[in-house]
Amino acid sequence: VCVWGSTGVEMAAEIKTEYPDKKVVLIHSRIGLADPELLPSVRQQAKEVLLEKGVELRLGQKVVSLSELQLNVTQRNMEVATERGETLTTDLIVCCTGLKVNSAAYASSFSDSLTDSGALKVNQHLQIQGFSNIFAVGDCADVKEPKMAYHAGLHAAVAVSNITNGLRGKELTSYHTGNITMLLAMGRNDGVGQFNGLKLPRSVVALGKSRDLLLWKSWREMKQTQP
């Protein structure tokens, strides 16, 4: 697993949990795991969970010629070389790096408002740069915070409020990032995270998210009964 941010950390833990006999090696270009916005103690705890599960870590190094490797497809005896000269033999490379927004739906219409990653430049009201009547929410909004569904929901609430306020001639609401809330499901039986900047016990994260990945919350928000 080649990793950037929290996705690869969760992926490695998930694989090792469900397939404990599989050898899982996580390669990361930095020493600290998961998103840098997380508390250092939470990031350290994520590392401890991986090691407890038996995941091997190669930190502070990159994969050589990653773009030339067969990614996300099983193939026997592929060789992965790191910049430190180590060669690993694997049957599957799961690449969790290189977050880039899929801007195909709007790139031609908002070319002057795009960042290099494909996100849309927005102001504090989540209005797209150069437009007063078009808002961007979720991953496509260039807001300096981790890309998560939780944040997309917060964006949506602000955008809806501002559309209504704009039509009524009222003052617009500003979006503020605040303290980071993030839960990492590290297999169905463990997890780490923080709420409003406060570190949570692993058991709380496992109970709250890892068991069902918050599916109960989605069913409730859709006002549906989970089968």
From TrEMBL:
Superkingdom per UniProt: Eukaryota
Cross-referenced SUPFAM superfamilies: FAD/NAD(P)-binding domain
Record GO biological process: apoptotic mitochondrial changes; positive regulation of apoptotic process
One MF annotation (Gene Ontology) recorded for this entry: electron-transferring-flavoprotein dehydrogenase activity
Cleavable signal peptide: none
Entry keyword set: FAD, Flavoprotein, Oxidoreductase
Domain named FAD/NAD(P)-binding: residues: 5-153
Reactions this protein catalyses: menadione + NADH + H(+) = menadiol + NAD(+); ubiquinone-10 + NADH + H(+) = ubiquinol-10 + NAD(+); phylloquinone + NADH + H(+) = phylloquinol + NAD(+); menaquinone-4 + NADH + H(+) = menaquinol-4 + NAD(+)
Protein name: Ferroptosis suppressor protein 1
